[in-house]
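**Tokenised fold:**
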Amino acid sequence: MVKSIDYEKRKNQVLAAAVDFYITNACAVSSELLARDFNCSSATIRNVMSELEEFGFLAHTHTSSGRIPTDKGYRFYVDNLLCEIDMLQAEKEKVLHEYDTSKKELESLLEKTSDILSSLSSCTGIVSFTDSKDRIYYKGMGLILNQPEFKDLRRIKLLVNLLEEKKRLLELINSDLNEKFKLYIGRELPFDDIEGCTLIISEYSVNKRPQGRIAILGPTRMEYAKVIPAIEYISGLLSDLLTEF
């Protein structure tokens, strides 16, 4: 049976609503709850959610009758349904002020950038600088570990080990040097031991030559609409600051 355009639109709307709810609340969403935002019955929404689950975009949890997004669901959401939210001018001015008040030294600038990335995303901010030392900085480990997804001690240990191993961390954020912007969701990540994480990477340059990468590492339940524009803004700003250095 061929689905109508209206049905496909409704299906996308339900998926977007389910992902948005889970990102905000960190708990499974039910058809009854989503039905409040749609002009239809909970039974209709339940049928749509069942189909989304059948195609791998949503999944049941062990502790709830509701559903949560899968890696595939997040990927479709980011690629097709996301409405990015530009940084407010006040946020940009705050970032500029933080740079203005930091020491005018390369290391201080890179450390400040990792701190800003962490603050904007409530996740871990990472900055690499390609030179003879292959420098790398990160801030915000505590922020990501405070997320409800990281209550399992095994997952915490794996994540901490990654962040503390400079070679592996560099390998992670330099895993695809052919792209200036890269977003890995869940099992797309090149390391199998990072479960339930998203990594967003953006290249920055000095005098239009690639110099390093900035990244945000957090749970797949990340505020993509806010974080993606933020990291793109910071990579451009850092490129300008380093060119003027």
In short: The mean pLDDT is 90.
